[in-house]
Design a protein that fits this description.
Largest sheet: 7 strands, antiparallel
Shape: elongated
Distance between the termini: 90 Å
Number of strands: 28
Radius of gyration: 31 Å
Strand order of the largest sheet: 3-24-21-26-19-18-17
Length: about 450
Amino acid sequence: MSKFLTAVLCAVLYGSFVISVPVSDISASSALQSSSGTGTSTASSAAAPSPTVPYASDDPNYWLWNETTTTDPQPERGKLGATILGPENVPIDRQNPDMLAPPTTDQGTVGNAKWPFSLSKNQLNTGGWVRQENMQQMPMAKAMAGVDMRLEAGAIRELHWHQTAEWAYVLSGSTQITSVDQYGRNYVATVNKGDLWYFPPGIPHSLQATNDTAEGTEFLLIFPDGTFNDDDTLLLTDWLAHTPKEVIAKNFQDYIMDWDMIPGEQLYIFPGTALPDDQKPPTSPAGEIPEPFSYEFSKIQPTQYTGGTVKVADSTTFKIATEIAVAEITVKPGAMREMHWHPTQDEWGFFLEGTARVTLFAGTAIAQTFDYQPGDISYIPTGYGHYVENTGNTTLKFLEIFNTAVFQDVSLAQWLALTPPSLVKQHLHLSDNTIAKFNRSKGVIVGGPGAKVSA
């Protein structure tokens, strides 16, 4: 009887041992048995080890609707979610499919990475308007703030200066800029659609819409400080209105009566008479500014990639612009700005044409997808992995703007292509053939399989 109980007890203990052994240990045990010659298996025919973690899902995560579809937007993706029973703002839901019905790969939140200029309060003036975005609208946008300004033909954004640098991209029409630097050197130029200007911190300047078009001009301004507020601009008329007239007269060695008609408060934006496009500045004893404050970005030939085009302006080409760099990007339908990140600077984005979606990867399993339309601002913190995918049927065009002297990015595909293949294979379980096809040069804008560069 005692022998029988002993046998049963041994059997139970052995069974418990087998159940508790990890899969990898069983595989290792089998391999050892095979190598010792006691089994019939060989190393070449042994089953591949099980993954350390589950394989990534193949479930589709496409955007579920866009501006061309008539789909009723609902928070449903596959078997997940349910319809909205209460009130719904359908126009906003139509613009944000990946917020209402997120990809299953999204997890957690990264903060608000989208702000439409349409939601910014507009300041209306005689001759134009202005609206802005800063950390009040996007708390994560710590490195840069943006201003959208419109001037009617001839209207003037008065003589002023800032405590930060000012960078601009002309959205429509043309703008004449004037400036004088700290050495008394002056500058006047007309900046056209798609062109840039830049003023270093503290350098006084003015902006005026030309008469080249009846509509005047509109431009995007970027300031390398997320707390920037355009209301804090230092204005010529505001300063003089708050300075005793006898002091002003003494400063200019004039009579007080000569200053009787100066404005009693700031002008900010006001109607004016446009100067000729080829206006020359007064002759200065110090000469003209050696590095132009404007750059004909519109005339730069973009680099063509399989899925679109890119052109960059930073201090290597627009030499005075030491604090702001930009990439102007176009993406064909079905293509995308490749998966990448920026190693040292946040990205402030502005969408000019088309529609897009962007997933921000923040690490620690946190990822969130946003959708963008023309006039929208995006913001991506330093080091966050992301892509920009064209979700529409027309060309996507947008700006990537950085608070830096030189544009930089790191390509996911190039990184893996230039890493020892065996190391990549151990991470991702990809075939040798797949790894061999990785592009050792940056793809930048990539299309679908087999996409070719346009002639």
